[in-house]
Amino acid sequence: MTHADTDEPPAVRAKASGVASVKADAAPGATDWLAQQQGTVRRWLLSAMGLGAAGTVLLCVQAGLLAWALNAILLQKAHVRDVLPAAAAFVLLALVRAACSVQARRFGFEAGRRVVADVRMRVLEQFRARGPAWLARQSSADLITRTVDGVDALAPYYARYLPQKAAAVLLPLIVLVAAFPADWVAGLVMLVTAPLVPLFMVLLGGVAERASQRRWVTLLRLGNQFFDTLQGLVTLRLFGAGARRRVLLAERSEAYRRETMSVLRVAFLSSLVLEFFAMVSIAVVAVLVGFRLMWGDVAFTHGMFVLLLAPEFFLPLRALGALRHARMDAVSAAGDLAALLESTPPAAGTASAASSKVVAPAHPPRIEIEDVRFEYAPGRAGLDGITMDIPAGRTTVVVGASGSGKSSLLRLLMGFHEPSRGTVQVEGHALDALDADTWRARIAWLPQRPHLFVGTLRDNVRMARPDADDVALERAARAAGLDAVLRELPHGWETPLGENGYGLSGGQAQRVALARAWLRDAPLLLLDEPTQHLDEASARAVQEAIATLRRGRTVVQVAHRLDAARAADQVVVMAAGRVIEAGAPAQLIADRGAFFRLLQNEEAA
Amino acid sequence: MSASVTGPLRRFWRVLGSQRRWMMLGVLVSLISTLAGIALMAIAGHFIASMALAGATGAVLNYYTPAALIRAMALLRTGGRYVERLVNHEATLRVLSRLRLWLFDRLLPLAPARTGFLGSADLFSRLRADVDRLEHAYLGIGIPIVVALLALPLVLAVQAAYAWPVAVLTAVAATAAAVLLPRWLIVRSRAPSEAMVRDEAALRAEVGDLVRGAAELRLYGADAVREARIHALTDAQQMRLARLDALQERGQSLIPLLAQAVAAGTLLLGAAAARADRLAGPDVVMLVLLGLAAFEVLAVLPEAFTRWGATRAAAARVFDLVDAEPAVEDPAAPAEPPSQPDISLRGVRLRYAEDAPWALDGVDLELPFGSRVAVTGASGAGKSSLAAALLRFQPFEGGRMMWGGRSITDYATDDVRAAIAVVEQRTHLFDATLIENLRVARPDATRAQIEAAVHAAQLSECVAALPDGYDTWLGEGGAHLSGGEARRVAIARALLADRPILLLDEPTEGLDAATAQSLMGALATLAEGRTVLLITHRLEGLSYLVDRRVRMERGRIVADEAVASVSVASCSDRFSTTH
Predict the structure, then answer these.
(1) If you average pLDDT over residues A78-95, what whole number do you get?
(2) Chain B residues whose beta carbon lies within 8 Å of the beta carbon of residue A15
(3) With an 8 Å Cβ cutoff, are B70 and A498 in contact?
(4) Which residue numbers delimit the ABC transmembrane type-1 domain (chain B) (predicted)?
């Protein structure tokens, strides 16, 4: 009837998940947020609690049966066949109780599952609402951890912790109600010790919990530092710093151990108190019942009954202690998730709700940008009042230092940024009046580092036009120079790419992006320094492929090497989110302005 | 279980060394408090039964001893639990520290040739999970199993002393609970556990795609499809989790069920024995309660045995990683490092595996002290292999590599590296303060030396802008430096290390042109008065650092040409006169 409390001390339990977030104290809103999520799964939680209560009622019946049978054996020397029905009923009830606990756990699990599915869906919705520009500025490892491990950490809280928390209040009450009529003295002992436990738990537990939470965070940080050291092994070897680092590691964990142990000596007092009351109440019940039995004040059946119930009285509370880490994990994850989900995202080009939107033109568009300002955050402008005219079917090259707003401009054109001021006109239509999907369908984009998705090479190219047939695919591959790459790959079009897939070199990945652009066959081509990270030979090849691709399209090209700019129809020089110069390259060189100075600098290097 | 099955865990046990004393102490204290808990219930049962009998028959009874025993057991249990938790914490923290240092000691000589797994997010997170498992092996496996193994025979002995059939019954049920049930659980949960690991990896990859490829997905209108896939994966993952959870709960509720069946059996056996006057009534009560309480130690066994398999696998994987031979061993009697390390390569060949193609296929290169050479070539041409051979991270198989006129293999590898300052392409910034990060290169650097290096690396402005200056926490928990700033930290480290040879590995790769250009001054200062080996896939913008350029293709040097000698200063002069 008893379970061991498998409390894994929280202070030695640090999750192995990669970039576990380390915050000294979880946001105060975290617990509120956890409580809010409870609403949708209340039904399941209540069912789990109900079954737990039913199990305890059955337990009381079992205790009664056992006490009765022992009484019969002890005082009446009962025959085996006299106690057989009671023993059989006892085992039968044990079966029903086991079924109850399995089912209760299932209900609890369902609650956890629903919260996980719901929160993960909202996280993804949030990602979509905030848009690619926001995502690009975040640490992707951190977002993955939050979305996968962080959300997963919520499940045990709802599945196990909350039902157990309710049980810790409800079940002792049931035991008490059962014990009182049997022996009011023992009932009184329980009743007196019971409120002392929560009282001491609050007094000591609050202190203890805060202390162990801080320890837990420190341990997490220590773990992160250790694994961070492993990732820096090469740097350590290069500087011959391995031995020193080892000393540091040893010192840190030694210091941590000393500090922790001195804190725990106090922190564990709270569980000492709980254990003390649980044990003392059993002992006191046993001794009191024993003497009253001798004096004949109480029947053996009743005395045995309360002795059997005494350990059960404190059991739910002890089991709750074992689940404390589930709560800590959830609170820490909830802090992150609440921050992510509850701040209202800046509108980021998702406002394409209206169906009366204009269908974007299918021919190479002319784009006029008028005094556009865009802010990442209040006061941090990505674009600060730019005005430019991008002629149809021509190439506009945008140059400028990093951070000058070149990439923001491309994202603006893709509709990933919502300007706070000014207008973007496409063929005379305001960009936000165009149907966002058809507008994006008119764009092909070559980023600096194209992303390769988990899937085959075919999937990766075909995503640019899902209805493309194999002939179109082959044609795009040839035009992009991807056919040469294909011949080298073990499984050709079926080669798996992405994480854990075949690792393509930068030049090969860029050819995949080029093939996507060919397949897309879009009238507006956006180039974001696609040759930046390539070696000379690959850069040349990609540039040649781009030269054919750009014909007859409106091209906006962000360039860091200025030889591209010399051949452009128009050059736009940007600095600090503004356009500082625009015009034909020859004209700009003649003017000896900003573009000319950039050219000078580049040749100097 | 055969030796090969327990092998990794036995080895893990040996690794723990002197910390094992703490673990054994923890087991002892746990055993005492567990037995006290069991005894408390058994004695209490016996006591009240005797008292009831005494009350009914009016017999005289020594009630002081059992009453005192009950109180003693209650206190022993309470105090024991407190001490047990403290000792087990102490032991766990000691194990943790010991294990990490051991891992560090084993992995350091393997980097980077045998530690490729550190660079893979997937393998690295698996290593973390494995180490985490081992750190919790003592609490999760050691304590429950050892305590059960020690406590159960004692309980059985007591039962046998009173009524051997009860002991047999308990032994049978305990075997079912402790041996058969866990085995069944392990078998049944293997497939869903493995599938769950796959689900999780797939989930991670899909979310990664959604985050990193957000722009492409939005542009191609594919984000909804991706989100649907993530939801489907979440459902699949949760379904498997549900199956595992139900399995575990079924296993866990089976143990109390068995305990209660044993109680019922004891009751019947006791009734028969009491009626035949073979057993006193109070002894029957005691035996029933003893059996119920004894199963307490078994309740944690299914989980412990489930962890056993996972922990054994984790230990095996970790040993697998650390058992690799270092790629390059030090000679038995290393030579004194030369004062002037001239470098000379003759027909040097290198490959990464027996059946791999030659990464270096006969490289001839003269690098007398003070020479400044760029090694260029496409990726895969052998540039990085050349650097790895020189740094003694990778062994070369053919040819000769001379270091100050003697074979480089005569020197300790640390001594060779101590002459080379490397500006890595991806330098590692430790999760520590800026100053600690700089002192990696020279622990005894004075404040003045550090400031000078920071100034020369053009990092001063960045330091001034950091919230806590030199004491700003970098990396994981702190401020993240931009690519250019990180590179400047690497340059400052190389300056602090102050070594005769400078190896620059793509020093401007990944930086935009303006940032790359702004590093010119810092790199030029760093290069002054040293042998310079510059590795880059394109020399453009870096030619001021070198006066010679060799081009590599397929592991060979195919061109060796002079580079027009230009200093940074004369660079801009020349430009302004020609335009």
Answers:
(1) 94
(2) 132
(3) no
(4) 25-310
Q: In this predicted structure, what is the pLDDT of residue B478?
A: 54
Please tell me which of the candidates A225, A307, A603 has its beta carbon nearest to residue B45.
A307
What number is the average pLDDT over the span A246-255? Answer: 90
Closest CA to B273 of B151, B167, B154, B171: B167
Burial of A217 (0-12, 13-18, 19+ CB in 10 A): buried
Nearest to B256 among A3, A22, A441 (CB): A3
Nearest CA in chain A to B541: A605
Q: CB-CB: which of B118, B206, B378 is closest to A231? A: B118
Q: Do A1 and B86 touch (CB under 8 A)?
A: no
With beta carbons less than 8 A apart as the criterion, state whether A571 and A565 touch: yes
Q: How confident is the model at residue A113 (pLDDT cuts 50, 70, 90)?
A: very high
Is residue B387 within 8 Å of B533, Cβ to Cβ?
Answer: yes
Stretch A83-87: mean pLDDT, rounded?
A: 94
Measured between alpha carbons, how far is A287 from A415 in angstroms, rounded to an integer?
Answer: 79
Residue numbers in A near B73 (CB within 8 A): 283
Q: ipTM of the predicted structure? A: 0.82
Structure tokens at A544: 């040649």
Size of interface A-B (CB pairs under 8 A): 476
Cis peptide bond upstream of B112, omega within 30: yes
Q: Is the pLDDT confidence value at A200 over 80? A: no
What is the per-residue pLDDT across A544-593, written as a single tens digit (0 to 9) for each? 888 888 888 999 998 877 777 888 899 999 988 899 999 998 899 898 88
The closest of B396, B380, B339, B363 to B554, measured between CA atoms, is B380
* Residues B135-165 pLDDT 10s: 888 888 889 999 999 999 999 999 999 999 9
Could you give all domains of chain B from N- to C-terminal order, each with its CATH number? 3-322 (1.20.1560.10), 343-578 (3.40.50.300)
Nearest residue in chain A measured CA to CA from B234: A117
Q: Kindly determine whether residue B476 and residue A228, on different chains, have CB atoms separated by under 8 Å.
A: yes
Alpha helices in B136-213 (DSSP H): 137, 143-162, 164-175, 181-212
